[in-house]
């Protein structure tokens, strides 16, 4: 697949470089005029979102300002990528079940399974391409992803040894127990105590299923997506400890 940097902008000392790798659209965030290798953080977005969703942008800019390289891509059937009929049917079923007050965990797990194989392959290809860039290099790699970003991140962590630490959360164990057991890198797991989308017991079960001997649970009050800003500071310290400081 051909890797191409397609455009570049700069905001508040952080450069955003849009890229494509084959049919995978993404964006790389680094400090302005970044030179030399630096730790890389891969950021997975939530369901129905994309590589420039507000939460992804905020976290990516913060991590990049501290000297990390950060990459985000559109998951299959999200953002600038085409959506097929099977995916649209899944998405419609999920919305209908949630509107009716039902538990969508089974459908969520099925959707994540639909996307996971392609997403893992996409991330592996993107990681290889980015590590060829002089201002990224082959330094240590981390992963940040909650909600769907967690559902697709667990299979990535189970399959890709280059990822050495991860922030995960906002998801239950349904469909992920076997792959979670193969995750052995340090993990920071985020849980919203009043989450109306993810039952608390399921999220705690996913944390318990993770095979890592170095894992920490951070629980905060609030609903799904109401992660406090202080968790970004905590994630920075976590990544700096396990990946090294950014440049």
Task: Write up this protein.
- Helices cover 38% and strands 24% of the residues.
- It is of the alpha/beta class and 247 residues long.
- Helix 2 (85-99) crosses helix 3 (105-130) and helix 3 crosses helix 4 (148-159).
- The protein is globular and about 50 Å long.
- 42% of the residues are buried.
- The mean pLDDT is 94.
List keywords for this structure.
247 residues, alpha/beta
Write the layout of secondary structure elements.
Blueprint: E1 3-11, E2 14-21, E3 24-31, E4 40-44, H1 54-65, E5 69-73, H2 85-99, H3 105-130, E6 141-145, H4 148-159, E7 163-169, H5 177-180, E8 187-192, H6 200-209, E9 215-220, H7 230-243
Parallel strand pairs: 4-5, 4-6, 6-7, 7-8, 8-9
Antiparallel strand pairs: 1-2, 2-3, 3-5
Helix pairs in contact: 2-3, 3-4
Overall strand count? 9
Written as H for each helix and E for each strand, in order along the chain, the element string is EEEEHEHHEHEHEHEH
How many individual helices?
A: 7
> Biggest sheet: strands side by side, in what order?
1-2-3-5-4-6-7-8-9
Roughly how many Å apart are the termini? 29 Å
Helix percent reads 25-40%
Low-pLDDT sequence parts: none
Described by strand count, sense and barrel closure, the largest sheet is: 9 strands, mixed
Strand content: 15-25%
- The radius of gyration over CA amounts to 17 Å
Looking at the structure, what is the overall shape?
globular
Q: How confident is the prediction overall: mean pLDDT? A: 94
**Helix/strand/pairing class, anyone?**
alpha/beta
């Amino acid at each position: 697949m051909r890797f191409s940097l397609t455009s570049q902008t700069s905001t508040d000392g952080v450069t955003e470089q849009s890229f494509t790798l084959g049919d995978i659209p993404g964006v790389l965030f680094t400090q302005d005029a970044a030179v030399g290798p630096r730790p890389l953080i891969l950021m997975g977005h939530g369901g129905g979102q994309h590589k420039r969703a507000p939460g992804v942008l905020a976290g990516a800019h913060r991590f990049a300002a501290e000297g990390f390289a950060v990459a985000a891509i559109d998951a299959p059937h999200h953002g600038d990528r085409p959506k097929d009929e099977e995916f649209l049917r899944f998405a419609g079923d999920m919305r209908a079940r949630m509107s009716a007050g039902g538990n969508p965990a089974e459908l969520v797990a099925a959707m994540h399974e639909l996307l996971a194989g392609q997403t893992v392959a996409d991330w592996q290809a993107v990681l290889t391409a980015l590590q060829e860039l002089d201002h990224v290099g082959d330094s240590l790699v981390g992963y940040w992803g909650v909600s769907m970003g967690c559902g697709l991140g667990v299979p990535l962590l189970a399959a890709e040894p280059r990822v050495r630490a991860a922030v995960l959360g906002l998801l239950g164990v349904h469909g992920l127990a076997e792959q979670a057991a193969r995750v052995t890198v340090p993990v920071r797991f985020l849980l919203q105590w009043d989450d109306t989308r993810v039952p608390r017991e399921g999220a705690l079960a996913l944390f318990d299923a993770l095979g890592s001997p170095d894992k920490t649970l951070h629980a905060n009050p609030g609903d799904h997506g109401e992660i406090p800003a202080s968790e970004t500071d905590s994630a920075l310290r976590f990544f700096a400890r396990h990946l090294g400081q950014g440049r």
